[in-house]
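Review box. Two proteins, two foldings.
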Amino acid sequence: MAKGKIGVTSQDLFPIIKKFLYSNHDIFLREIIANAVDATQKLNTLASTGQYKGEIGDTTIEVKLDKEAKTLTISDKGIGMTKDEIKKYINQIAFSGAEEFLDKYKDKANAIIGHFGLGFYSSFMVSDQVEIQTLSYQEGAEPAHWTCDGTPEYTLKKGTKTERGTDIIMHISEDEKEFLEEPRIKELLNKYCKFLPIPIAFGKKKDWKDGKEIETDEVLIVNDTNPTWTKAPADLKQEDYDAFYHQLYPFAENPMFHIHLNVDYPFNLTGILYFPKIKNNMEIQKNKIQLYSNQVFVTDSVEDIVPEFLTLLHGVIDSPDIPLNVSRSYLQSDSNVRKISNHITKKVADSLHDLFKNDRASFEEKWNDLRIFVQYGMLTDEKFAERAKPFFLLENIEGKYFTLEEYENLVKENQTDKDNNVIFLYSQDKDAQYSYIQVAKDKGYDVLLMDGQLDTHFINFLEQKDSNKRYTRVDADVVNKLIVKDETTESSLTEQERTDLAPIFSAPLQSEKINYMVNFEALGENAQPVLITQAEFMRRMKDMSAMGGGGMNFYGEMPDSYTLIVNTDHELVKRIIKDKEEKLEGEITPFNEKIAKLEAEEKAIDESKDADEVKKDKREKLTEKLSSERKQKEELLSNFGKDNELVKQLTDLALLSNNMLKGEDLAAFVKRSVGMIK
């Protein structure tokens, strides 16, 4: 029997393993079984090259629990080890600069294990003692038994193993006894080992008999050694891909379609990516791609390996060129990872383009589910944006689909403004904005439906790409100003008349949360008497703020601003103007005369040769008088507006058409409407 110390340059190794890897300690099972798979595959390779001439036999890896002995054992029938190999591969941990290593990696658990050849030592995260019983495949080899209790001291003596292979026996520590529970081990085997290429046995199959679950004599193999992604696409049918999808995601809805990846140069990459039916909450959909390295599970958080938008996909990617355990900074700088990322992006774009070209009808049927994915990709990945541009679709309110180029050609002639900008009109809710849509259609305009979660951001993206195109919501202004042509129709009201009418129409709309600005337009006698619009820029900024758009918080905190547009051509508005003149003329005229006189005095002060201080003093007194007169006049007009049933009815109708009339105000409107009908 030999005793010795493990060849490390720092005695801090085991505390590092115990302490700093604790947060991810269940990784030990993956590492130990991956080593067993590696040993088995090496034996198969030796046999295939004639270097091993014995019988390979059953190479199933066994996972055994002994709760009484408090041990977890992983047994393989691979190449095994001699005493000298144990000394070389177990007792000598080969890395240089141990102190630098400890300083650099002690807080990065995944960077330590595997990447520095420490996979076996992960067993000490959960064990008080670890044993190795092993017998090499080499003819005449003696069995060896290695034991270590988590300190640099070890013992190495002749072992008792009689069959080729290696047993790793972990004596589970008291505070890690969860790993002596069968359900916990099953969970980890399913997580890390579900698709390993060598059969893994754990326990026996169970069956139901007489209403009870009983254990059978048949060994339970927990993994699929030949998963779908490792097979040639020519050997697979659609039902095979669907079955594999539900193997990955048992409760998921069927995906729309898939992409089979199979690359062997300049890097190795296999896998299957599925396009799920994406719902409204993108975050729920993320981190569903599973990353494997030679069928060993690595992670399902792949944002450092594939572009962010591709994390909306589901499925598997497998590449031996991506190490099992690496830091994020390594992934972000590794050239193979970048190549893999670029290839997947191109493959996804090419597959979508092929579907669009070869079966546009099917592509259009899937578009509402695909749209958020394609938009997300175009917003976050410049190369994907260029590739996706030919197959990105716009949908109008009639449900017809157009590429960006097709739609521009459709509307360019009729929807180009006086500054030569092509205006794309859109609606975010075709029911709520129905009346505005109809007015636009009556004008001969086409209207898009832009009701998606990312549409507001995407509109900005499209406008930035082409400064001669504008997207304007159909209720952003009166129809004549949505697409400004050369011809304009001005209201016949004087500036004084507009000033007097503004408080009358704004009075019923007073709100602490909403600002209303009153405009007067000559829209024709058949147009609505009163409309409410919201400027495109402000509404869009607030929409982006609500979605968490960067730098948009300022707009989110501002009150909503709307424009109340009064159609001075409408008979009902004319009636209000006439009513105001009849009822208020005698009271308004004195105010107008006083205000005109004070304004004249103010002008005279400005033109006088008095000293600046004298002018300032006189102007302050006049300003106070002017403010008082204007305020009294505005109160008179506001009270008239509040008490005028027709004004209230027209403003409520405008609110109702914008889905802004609710609760008590809606009930009052209904009651008033009934009274006016009688």
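Next protein.
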Amino acid sequence: MEEILSKAKYWLSDVFDETTRKNTQHLIENDKKELEDSFYQDLAFGTGGMRGIMGIGSNRINKYTLGKNTQGVSNYLKAQFPKKEIKVAIAYDCRNNSKELAQIVANVFSANGIKVFIFSDLRPTPELSFAVKHLDCQCGIVLTASHNPPEYNGYKVYWEDGGQLVPPQDKEIVEVINSLDYNEIKFEAKEDLIEYIDLEVDQAFIEASLKNVNFQVSRKAKDDFKIVFTPLHGTSITLIPKVLEKAGFTNVFIVEEQAEPNGNFPTVKSPNPEEPDALKMALKLADEKQADMVIGTDPDSDRLGIAVRDNEGKMSLLNGNQTMVLMTDFLLKEYKAKYGFKGDEFIASTIVSTPMMEKLASHYGVECKLGLTGFKWIAKMIKDFPNQTFIGGGEESFGYMVGDFVRDKDAVTATLLACTIGAQAKEKDSSIFQELLELYKKHGVYQEKLISLVKKGISGAEEIQQMLSDLRNNTPTDFNGTKVIAFEDYQTSERTNLETDEKSTINIPQSNVLIFYLEDGTKVAARPSGTEPKIKFYVSTHHSLEDTSDYKVAKERLENKIDSVLSHFDF
């Protein structure tokens, strides 16, 4: 505690403004628990940039932690591009304080002589990724905490290819940031270097989105297809209605109670389209309007949740894996019909997402590249293999990317793609749900489940590390009677065949991820969240499907199997 107190007392110095000093003193005198959590560590970059609770301290999002980040990024940019006019694009979402924090970030960049393009109002994260390349910038910043609770905010850094930071830039920039003191931050803006942007970039992004989802659907089919859309109080309200309208979808019903951007997210417990509760109001409206599809996006509009009518006419929520395989199969089928495969095409996913992506790749004769969690790794694949054609890719956590004009998950374009798939299916007297069943009949039913355990604070972080350490050092030989045949440790980059004791190297960057393969084809993964105080467990299993009418029985069998596997853990 002495070290924490010493760290906090530095925030009483004249390096910090009066309000910060006053609030720090209040914590020291009145709230030791909050003081400890606010200062016990420096907020770190995870799988989706830096996210944290807003407040005072080194473990919080505030003008000083973000100012220090931005000063470090500025120093690094100037070292990397000594002979260029350096340009940075900045966007922000609907969260409380996002606009003010974005302005502070813009001020620091400009104070360092860097040209800044900043959106004058909130915009989706994928548009920022697009803007970096469109405006020929070396870097991009978006202020967002995605689907985290209202008290959070965050800071994501993009590089000149439009993708988020990856090695070696990420570690190099963190080293520069960590070498700085707060008194080195330049906060005084050079106003002539700050330019506000909006409509020109909006239009370019919309045109690119429409170009990448340009598939044959009749005017009548688009008119007949009914869509309920909710932005969940987030940024997608600025673009998705326009994109759908320009694409010719006229039957769009917006959940008005959730249309207004609001960082408090007043109508939902969590603005997370992964959570069924988040789409309750949209599902209600869908039944009133007899809609074919519900789409909800998270606050920064990079992820989407989808519900469609099942074969009994009821709205059924799709999980992220199901949405991903539907979109990928559609893109592969359309690409094959339009161009034919030349042998250089690939799709992409993550090591904790459904193995059905690999099945699809094999079926179409294309490559499926797998990476760690986070779309920055898919963007890196595109960058690392410029002679290959990226068609589409996603991950289980409700994100998808269509083509490479955006180098991050993109709920705007994915929404258009989902509506296109749905309208095309309806036009041929099918449905998205039926199309999914047909895929399962062809490739087998894949069933997945994610368990997330929240472990807050210092003790929570220690508990997460202990749980992973126990799994790593005492490798299970079975999960409730089903034998483990292989084990992958991404921290040591080693795969072990437990039947032969043969070891091999995993050619994926190191990460604290463990994956177990069972003799019946089930896969179990464990990893700490890179954006929240959580440990996550993923289970995937599959079974053949003789006829689509057998789906319910097959699904129930697989769900029971997953529950049996998870009973191994003492949750």
